[in-house]
Amino acid sequence: MVEAWYMDESQEDQRAPHRQRPNRAVSLEQLRRLGVVYRRLDADNYETDPCLKEIRRAENYSWMDIVTIHKDKLPNYEEKIKTFYEEHLHLDDEIRYILEGSGYFDVRDKDDKWIRISMEKGDMITLPAGIYHRFTLDENNYVKAMRLFVGEPVWTAYNRPADDFPARKQYMKFLAEGEH
């Protein structure tokens, strides 16, 4: 089961857990209120999994590929790791399904605090368009993930500040509506 928590302010290795002391856990319900959707799937059978097939159909995820993030597998590894960890947003949802390994997605809450989401084999996450986030490997330094997309993929990341994009404005409206 996925685990999430508020991060400490340490600037140490980004791959460390960065838990506050005492730990401030974040529930799936709190993540849902931020628009983050979590699912647990059978990564051992992803090629034939009827649940994945149904999610892809229901959400119109027509495009898919698999990326391996490891120093021996990813060209320009060091540069990519730094880019993934820069705070950014996308104009479309970001969908990742962990097939092997593990890593962290960090998202901003409504008060601009970082929440770290620990992802491992079988975890699927959807980050809504317009949410500020970043990704890093954990101390295992390896993840193999499926990337899903509606239509042709657009991988453009807009580093913060990117508050003038319609996707960001729509996301902020979503957060404000959830406060009532």
UniProtKB/TrEMBL annotation:
User: Could you tell me where this protein is found in the cell?
Assistant: Cell membrane; Nucleus
Q: Which GO terms describe its molecular function?
A: acireductone dioxygenase [iron(II)-requiring] activity; metal ion binding
- Report the catalytic activity: 1,2-dihydroxy-5-(methylsulfanyl)pent-1-en-3-one + O2 = 4-methylsulfanyl-2-oxobutanoate + formate + 2 H(+)
Q: How does it sit in the membrane?
A: Peripheral membrane protein
An example GO CC term for this entry is: plasma membrane
UniProt cross-references to Gene3D superfamilies, sorted A to Z: Jelly Rolls
Q: Where are the transmembrane segments?
A: none
Q: What is its EC number?
A: 1.13.11.54
Keyword Cytoplasm carried by entry: yes
The top EC class, named as a word, is: oxidoreductase
Region Disordered: list its residue ranges: 1-22
* Needed cofactors: Fe(2+); Ni(2+)
Would the keyword Amino-acid biosynthesis be found if you checked this record's keyword annotation? yes
Tell me which InterPro entries the record gives: ARD, ARD_euk, RmlC-like_jellyroll, RmlC_Cupin_sf
In terms of superkingdom, the source organism counts as Eukaryota
Q: What is this protein called?
A: acireductone dioxygenase (Fe(2+)-requiring)
What GO biological process terms are annotated to this protein in UniProt? Answer: L-methionine salvage from methylthioadenosine
Q: Which UniProt keywords apply?
A: Amino-acid biosynthesis, Cytoplasm, Dioxygenase, Iron, Metal-binding, Methionine biosynthesis, Nickel, Nucleus, Oxidoreductase
